[in-house]
Amino acid sequence: QEQLVESGGGLVQAGGSLRLSCAGSGLTFERYAMGWFRQAPGKEREFVASISSSGGGTYYADSVTDRFAISRNKGEKMVDLQMNTLKPEDTAVYSCARAKTAYSSVLAVRDMAVGYWGQGAQVTVSS
């Protein structure tokens, strides 16, 4: 059974850092582009970052460029999101996502061509 499990969320002050991790199981992890999305209370889910199956390509939402970094460890089936210089507007539930199709692009994940979602991890940034 396929699973994506996030960890590393929590409460941090503005300007601080957090690292989210997503552990994959039950799938051929290395074939799929992966991504992170977030959903704040009362708002729609939005794209944050994506990474290609090889790890050589990444794409970021404008709101997080130069602050967040996505990476993957294929051997351990992990995808991480390093979040720096956090702002209160980054407060949301962050979810890991697997592309719908093997070897699809980072832009496909950006456009929500997602085949599986994790349960999400809460990130709260206080001012």
Structure description:
About 5% of the residues lie in helices and about 50% in strands. The chain is mainly beta. Strand 7 (about 70-75) and strand 8 form a beta hairpin. The longest helix is centred in the last third of the chain and has 5 residues, at about 105-110.
The helix content is under 10%
Class of secondary structure makeup: mainly beta
Name the average pLDDT. Answer: 95
Indicate the proportion of strand residues: over 45%
Low-confidence stretches: none
Find the count of extended strands (DSSP E, 2+ residues): 11
The radius of gyration over CA amounts to: 13 Å
Overall, the morphology is globular
Q: The biggest beta sheet, please? A: 7 strands, mixed
CA-to-CA gap between the ends? 40 Å
What is the string of SSEs from the N terminus onward?
EEEEEEEEEHEE
Question: Given the structure, what is the number of helices?
Answer: 1
Provide the fold topology.
Layout: E1 3-7, E2 10-13, E3 18-25, E4 34-39, E5 46-51, E6 58-60, E7 68-73, E8 78-83, E9 92-99, H1 106-110, E10 114-117, E11 121-126
Parallel strand pairs: 2-11
Antiparallel strand pairs: 1-3, 3-8, 4-5, 4-9, 5-6, 7-8, 9-10, 9-11
